[in-house]
What does this fold into?
Amino acid sequence: MSAKLIKAIKFTLSATDNVNKYFLFGDEHILMYQAKNHCLKNLDIKLLEKFYIDIADENFDANLDQCLMSNSLFNEQKVVFLSLSKNRLNKELVERFKKIMAYETDNILITEITNLSKKVIEKDIISKLDGDGCFIDCSSPYDSEIENYLKNNLPVFLNKNEHIKVLLEMYEGNFSALFNDLEILKILEIKEEKEAMTIFTSNGDKNNYKLIEHISNNESDSALSIINSMKKKDRNSVPLLIWILARDINAIRFIKDGKNLKTLGIWDNQINMYKRISDRTSRESIDKSINTLDGIDKCFKGVLNGDPWNGIKDIVLELSG
It folds into this structure.
């Protein structure tokens, strides 16, 4: 059986029954995040035993065998998060993908491929693999895909063709920015059509950029007040903050590397905020924030003990300094 290839938005609207091997790739970070969550949608992530393995690690084979063949003391099922960040393939890595695909297990394997092009993945990985795994394309979606997503995810009071048309024109394929504003609707608990459309059509800085605005201006108290407000209103907004901070940290790193920020959903009128932070922030500080964010994600998922809100505040203070 050939490996299945599916676009991320279609995947997030589909059932995941009878599949336990997922391969995620593409440059749309929020789609990668959504797809990964959808892989586990019928499971309680906090109750799963979790493992993290780098496919390029020299001990990969032994590490994968050890975590999948050992018995779990507390849970019947495990999830193994595999990753490959290298930007080139070699024969050994292809063989490791074959091993993942061929592994007979009831556990869940989720592989993230972050730096290989779609062309390379299709030509040098998918075409060479047989099995029941699913490759999920998290690259920028087409307008038709975004339209389908909106029809399935907009709240009832906004789910009208006229609004969908406006949103498609306004965001011009920038799915990350659109998704972020949809999440803001949830956090603000907006239930009225007119007020909701104001979030999308405002010409000023959107509410979700107030946090980075305060950080860029060294206004740590104001930035922390936003975090405290979100915690008070909705303690489940941690995943959104993880995504927002990941975007912001990536933007700061992109500035240092001379990369364009539009792929992150950040436009010209917001770039100066990130430049101010980049000018005063060392690469070591950026790496520290990335490690902290990884810990926040693991705390939220129950892999590590601790309060993820404390880690979020640490990042805000680190970047505000």
Summary: The chain is about 55% helix and 10% strand.
